[in-house]
Structure formats: structure tokens, C-alpha cells
Amino acid sequence: MSAELFRKTLREQRWGLLGWACGLAFISLFLLYFYPFISRAQEVLKVLDNLPPFIKNLVGKNNFMATPEGFLNLQPFSILAPLIFIIFAIGKGGDATAGEEERGTLDLLLSQPLPRWRLVLAKFAAQAAALLGLSLAFWSSMAFGTWLFGVAVNWLRLAQVIFSLLLLGLTFLSMSLAIGCLSGKRKFSLGICGGFALVTYLINAYAPMIEGLRPYRIVSPFYYYNGQAVLINGLVISHALVLSALSTVFFAAALFFFSRRDLST
Amino acid sequence: MKNTVIKTDGLSKNYGRRIGIAEVDLEVFAGEVFGYLGPNGAGKTTTIRILLDLIRAHAGKAEIFGLDVRRRSLEIRRRVGFLPGELNLYEDLTCDGLLRFFAGLRGNIDWSYVEELAARLGCHLSQPIASLSLGNKRKLGLIQAFMHRPDLLILDEPTSGLDPLVRHEFFGLVAEAKEAGQTVFFSSHNLPEVARVCDRVAIIRNGRLAALEDVADLKSRSLRSVEIRFGGDFDARAFAAVAGLEVTALDRRSLKGRMKGEMDPLLKAAARFRIDDFSSQEPGLEDVFLAFYGENGHVR
Question: Of A165, B176, B182, B275, which is most buried with the most CB atoms under 10 A?
């Protein structure tokens, strides 16, 4: 890996990363601040618990308001957090090589003594490090919020669900990197990955309610991310391995595509 | 025996149905300044990008320093300085930041030489790249190409966007590189510019190599357009015997034509009359090409 390129890529992301981390911290503190009010509002809970399973499954799990874990499993871990991680990951992965190619900076970069595989590796490593930073910031703000507002949540479980979130982010990062490496087009990569995220999210959300969809749940990265409600039930190692394997396969595909292709000017 | 630095053999590249280059055979020797001349879209950049392994040839082979450009690209790029024709730089960096980034990728850069190059080209290293004009960006591109004193410089349209003073400084750098034994491969669509610094030129047209010439030969065969306005009547018959002159327009007070080779006979013939004005223009590349190789690239 090229340390210079790793540092440069990481440095380019510092302000964006700070912005996303602040956003996640705000969401964490906002939700944790309001949880005690919501948990005391029994009437609201009753209404929510009486919602048809269709709605409850769409947004999260059954019994989702009874405990802090249930509440947090619904929000932010069912929609907001994965959404933020995926937007961050898809944007970065698609930009890694395809962005450089579109901006016309790749010719000069690759005229230096830098093999193509090292370029892809350095970019991926820097962006994965940014995702890790985002995960740490998220865990820290969640842990701080639970302490500050007296919400009893197991911090280890919190780390597990955020680790699962990191793996989900890495899956989409490597996927968008691979498509960017294949096509050289950033928007194409964003479109394909965004579409894939949407479709697989809906499959995972609707599968518990629609018999016909259930077998297809296993194609959704969201199922492996939090299909078993990690915050409540703990990390499922096999699911974490599936996401890790997907990331590895996509990363290998990125290396394969990028080293064999004509680069556009 | 001359050492070969760049050698291509039947190098071909298509973009779909369109020909990028076809069966290009080149040989560039160590220590020479080699011009790669052709109009826009002729295939100059395609050749250069194959040499740097940015794109891959469909047929033929190319070697630099005797190494295959595809398989040994990394070793080649360590010893090559490159300036792209379309230069795009990281707009979020300063000049200093960009050069330090590339220096970090290469290693072992003598920073005092970078500062010397910057001073000679009038490049202020503390400036943000986003604030630079096109010409100043080209200067920065030249610095990064020269800064590691590479054995081979591949420069794609290096003078475009440079003002005359900087252009002069650039030609000085090329001459110094040649003196130091470096090889310069230099693409351009500007014949006088190439003629000024190059030892040999290859002319590429529609993706095919049309000619490989010594610059001295090309100069002696180049066509200049000439126009003489006389202060009074003159005798056109005095110009009939001028070797190399082809008269294209004639009236009582002026003569227009194309002149091949030395100007001396024309000036001596004209000096017999009173002259109000005399102008001579360097030929454009297309004119030279058409004059010598015709539409099909066959030598006339």
C-alpha cells in the first residue's frame, strides 16, 4: 500500500467525516434524550404495540418500544444509521478511482511509480479507516448519551451492532469501489449501489410479512447486518462473516477490474 | 551503437471501430530530443498513454529501456517523467503540497532542485492550485515531470498555455536535459516549436506514422508562404528562375507564393526592385504534411 496516498485520501475526508460524525452524534443524543419521555408515555406504547405487524416490521421489530434496546434497534439502527453509513460508503467507494478518472487526475497519479493494485488498496484502506472512525464516533456518542441520560444499554452490545454496521458500510464501500473500477463512472456506481441498497432493504423489511419474499431475505446485506436485532440478541458471527466475505469478494473484483482496464482521460 | 530508449513495433489501438493508432513503428535513441508531431486527434496521446500503460494496445508491442511497457510498467515509470496533454491537478492542494505528494510517491527527491525549477519557471509554490491559471498549472506539471531527473521525459503538448518567456525557459530545460544525457519524447502540433529543439521528428496522421525525419531535412524541405509588395512595377520574369519558388498570385505590385528550401535566391531576386514590404510565414503542420506526403501519406 502507498502510505502517501493513504494519508492523502484520509486527509481529503477529514471535514466530511467530521460532519457525518457530528450528525450521528446529534442523532444519538437526540434519540437518547427523548427515550425516557417515550418510555413513560404508556399510551403511545400501547398504540405502537397495536400497530399491524406490517408497519412494525417495516420500521423495525416487534416489542420495539418496551426496552431501550428495542427502541434503539428501531431508531437509529433500523433506518437512520444504516442510511448514513451507506450514503457515506457509496459516495467514497465510487469516488475512489472513478472520481479521479472523471476529474482527469488519474493519468498523472498513475504515471508515478505506483501499481494500480496499490492505488486501489490505499484508497480502500483510507476509506475503510474513515468508516471505522465514523463507527468509533458513533459508538462514543451513543455510549456518552446513554450515560448522560441514564438509559440502560449494554455498551458491548452497542459495540456489536455498530461493528455490524461497519461491516455493512464496508460491503457497500467495496461494492461501489468495484463498480467504479469496472466502469470508471462515479454516478453509475452510485446509481447501481443506491438501487441495490434500496431493493435489498425493502426485501429485508418486507420478508417477515410476505411469505413469497422470505427466501430472498438472504440476498439482502441488511439481513446479515441486523436481521437478528444485534443490540437485543448479540452479534451473529456467521452473519458478520457473510458481510466480511462480501467485502472481500467485491474488493478482489475491484482489483481485478481496475488492473485490466483502459483508463479514460 | 545507439541505445534504444523507446521502441514500438506494429503498435495498434482501436476505440470501437475508430482507429486510435495503427501499426506505429518508432525507435527513439538515448539522449535525443524526439518530436512526435501531428494534428489534434492524430494519435499522439494514444501512443503516449500506451507507453505509460494507462491504456493497452490491441496489437504490436512497445518497450521502454528494453522493458515491456505492459509487464514492467512500474520499473519504467520510476525512470520516466510525464506531463499529460490534458493536465488536471488536485485543486484542494497547494503547489507545494502537490509536489510533496508526488515526491513522497517517488522517494529520494532533491527538494532544492524542485525549488530551483520553480524559480526558473516562475512558479510560486505556496499558491493554492485552485487559484492558478492554465499556464501556471502547466508550469507545475513541468516541475513534477522534471523534478526526479528522469532518464526519459514524455511530454504531451508541453508548451500549450505557456507564455513566451516560460516557453523559452522550458526549451532551456529541454536542452539541459539533453546535455545531461536524458531523452525527451515530446508531442506537439506545432512544427516550428519541434524544429527548434528536436533532433528527429515522427509525423503521425490519422493514427498512422506518416514519416520519420531528421529535423534538418524537414527544415530544408519545408514550405514557407511568402508575400512581397513592391514600391513600383517589377519584372515577374526575374523570379522565374528562383529555385523552390512556386508563385500562387501575381499582380503589378505584389507577388505571393510558396518557397521551399533556402530563402537566399528569392531575396536576391527581389532585391533588384524597390520593396515596400516582405513577409514570410512558417508553414502549419498540415501544410507541411500536404506538401510532402499528400492526402494519403505518400511522399511526393
Answer: A165
| pLDDT tens, residue by residue, A6-41 | 999 999 999 999 999 999 999 999 999 988 887 776
Interface contact A2-B141, CB threshold 8 A: no
Q: Is B54 an 8 Å CB contact of chain A?
A: yes
Whether the predicted interface score ipTM is above 0.85 = yes
Q: What CATH number should be reported for the domain whose range is B223-281?
A: 3.30.70
Contacts A114 to B, Cβ<8 Å: 74, 77, 105
Mean pLDDT in chain B?
90
Of B80, B101, B144, the CB nearest to A8: B101
Structurally, what CATH architecture does the domain formed by B4-219 represent? 3-Layer(aba) Sandwich (3.40)
Domain residue ranges in chain A: 3-33+75-260
Domain extents in chain B: 4-219, 223-281
3-state secondary structure labels for all residues of A109-149: HHCCCCCHHHHHHHHHHHHHHHHHHHHHHHHHHHHHHHHHC
Q: For position A125, what pLDDT does the model report?
A: 97
